[in-house]
């Protein structure tokens, strides 16, 4: 029988650490985190990008931590959690408006809300909804913001599905591909995750550069 100390150690999960979450909850944890990060404002701090990539890597069984996940089950859990969470966030925004964000004391969350609104204004609904998936915090708050700003339900659903599938399945399969080709790749997991964060911001950075160039050209003309 497990002692209280060993049970306590098993339950001591670091929600900010992808490997800790996966070791404790497996595929189910991925689905829950995807839902919370994209659907609930309290989930803005969760490690979505790194969790998806690490989970894909652990599907190969090449890691040193004794955790191996089923790739088909992982893909389903990641996609369902990401899509259901986004839709939930949108519905919360439609009903509660900006009241939830207004009551929040988190400066990071409010900054994310401002960036989300700027994305919707600058790039239009479709492009903003897809781009937001790749920006931490923004992918959490854009969904209720879209609901509060009355983005058409069909438009939101279509593009959140497109963005959600590209984001969740793309990062998971990228981790799986790297884990399949590089032995003991988890030894380099921290720098890899840092690269993922930088790459995840690339679509937004490219769009900002394009918009600035277009603005300059328009001013010259």
UniProtKB/TrEMBL annotation:
Keywords: Cell membrane, Membrane, Transmembrane, Transmembrane helix. It is found in: Cell membrane. The keyword Membrane applies. The keyword Transmembrane applies. Its main location: membrane. Residues 46-176 form the VTT domain. InterPro entries: DedA-like, VTT_dom. It is a multi-pass membrane protein. The chain crosses the membrane at residues 21-46, 71-93, 156-176, 188-206. Signal peptide: none annotated. Coiled coil: none annotated. Pfam families: VTT_dom. Belongs to the DedA family. This is DedA family protein.
């Amino acid at each position: 029988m497990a002692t209280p100390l060993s049970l306590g150690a098993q339950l001591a999960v670091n929600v900010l650490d992808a490997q800790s979450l996966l070791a404790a909850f497996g595929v189910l944890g991925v689905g829950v985190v995807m839902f919370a990060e994209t659907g609930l404002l309290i989930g803005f701090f969760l490690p979505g990008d790194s969790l998806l990539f690490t989970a894909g890597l652990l599907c190969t069984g090449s890691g040193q931590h004794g955790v191996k996940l089923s790739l088909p089950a992982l893909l389903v859990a990641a996609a369902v959690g990401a899509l259901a969470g986004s839709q939930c966030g949108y519905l919360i925004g439609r009903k509660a408006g900006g009241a939830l964000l207004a009551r929040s004391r988190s400066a990071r969350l409010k900054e994310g809300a401002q960036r989300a609104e700027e994305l919707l204004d600058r790039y239009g609904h479709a492009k903003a909804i897809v781009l937001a998936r790749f920006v931490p915090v923004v992918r959490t708050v854009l969904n209720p913001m879209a609901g509060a700003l009355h983005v058409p339900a069909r438009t939101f659903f279509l593009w959140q599905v497109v963005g959600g599938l590209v984001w969740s399945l793309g990062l998971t399969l990228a981790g799986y591909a790297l884990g399949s080709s590089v032995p003991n790749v988890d030894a380099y997991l921290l720098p890899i995750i840092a690269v993922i964060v930088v790459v995840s911001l690339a679509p937004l950075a490219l769009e900002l550069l394009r918009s600035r160039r277009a603005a300059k050209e328009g001013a010259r003309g």
